[in-house]
Amino acid sequence: MRVIAVRFLLSLFLFSLFSLQMSAASATVATEPKPRIENQRVTSQVAEKRQIHRTAVRDAQIGAENGSRSDPSVKGKSIKFIAPPKKWITKTIFCSSGGLDSACSATIIDCRATGKSPRIVYMREEGSNQWYGPFSQCGDGYPPAPDTNDPTLPRTPPPPPTPTITQIRKAFLELPFAKPTVSTNPGEVDGKTLKDFKTYYAASWPDEGLAPGDVSKPVKLLSWTIEFKIASKDYRYDFGDGHTSGWTSSTGGVYPDGDVTHSYREVGTKDIKVDARLVGQYRVNGGAWQDLGAVADLQDEPVADIEVVGTRTRLQAY
Which of 164, 204, 227, 295 lies at a 20 to 30 A Cα distance from 272? Predict the structure, then answer.
């Protein structure tokens, strides 16, 4: 009996010791780090974002050196140059729809999908007479500086000179414009109107000279052939008694639809005239019309006269 009890106690002790060893082993295994696929994925995403940021910063620095700026929407993948690269001279030719060389024709086709204006750009380094290009460009901006060590880079003679917008506007102001005349109603027949009576005024253009709606003959300006389309901006009617209509877009008219009228308070002969200001558009080599941004204020318009007469009321006894 005593032997059986001793064996039972020994078995119980060994079982307890084994259980303690297993618990210790489990605790050790639990504390060991386990690799996680999710952590690896997050780490990869962080690294990618850092690389994109470094690329954007690098492109921004390049853009600052070349007078340009990075487009943040493309995350540093491209640069839109808003100014020519430093140490480079550029000449830009705006392409229109007709009378163009092959470079402009190809650029027009390439830019149709973008909806932006086509142009070609020539470039040369400061201090050099060697021009490169033409480079196609859609809309505003400039291409990056070309690699002058590239043997395939097109080397061209200097591009033809192009007039500035100031020169184009000057040519517009020197056109042989017509000068409008003014007529009245009443007064269109005998040149008379009545005191305190509403008089109607109308402006008209003679056949000689360029008038609103006309297109000028082609004007040769440096290497460009330019045409101008004339339009009226406004009119100002001088009634000859110290009063004017102020500037208006109306050409007036006769009774009852005319909208330029005046009533005289005093009798006598009045010198009347209409001043006019003209605007226009221009096009190059038969291309698309473009706004000019210039105003021709005509001078020395012809003067007409109108006689203002009074009415007499007689009292008659019956």
Answer: 295
Residues in the chain, total: 318
CA distance linking residue 283 with residue 281, whole number of Å = 7
> pLDDT tens for residues 240-256?
999 999 999 999 999 99
- 300: tokens are 């020395």
Two tokens, residue 224: 């460009």
Which helix (H) or strand (E) segment holds residue 30: the answer is: helix 2-31
194 versus 312: which is more confidently predicted? Answer: 194
Do 132 and 146 form a contact (C-beta atoms < 8 A)?
yes
DSSP state of 102: H
Q: Are 118 and 140 in contact (CB under 8 A)?
A: no
Residues forming a β-bridge with 304: 272
The pTM for the full model equals 0.54
Q: What is the dihedral of CA 247, 192, 177, 248, to 10 degrees?
A: 10
80-94 pLDDT, tens digit each: 445 567 788 888 888
Helix (H/G/I), strand (E/B), else coil: 68: coil
Direct distance between the N- and C-terminal alpha carbons of the chain, in angstroms, rounded to an integer: 173
How far is Cα 16 from Cα 86, in angstroms, rounded to an integer? 84
CA 116 to chain CA mean position, Å: 10
Angle CA 212–214–215, to nearest 5 = 135
Rg of the chain, C-alpha, whole Å:
43
For 193-227, how does the pLDDT look when each residue is reduced to its tens digit (9 = 90+)?
999 999 999 999 999 999 999 999 999 988 788 99
For 102, other C-beta atoms within 10 Å of its C-beta total: 8
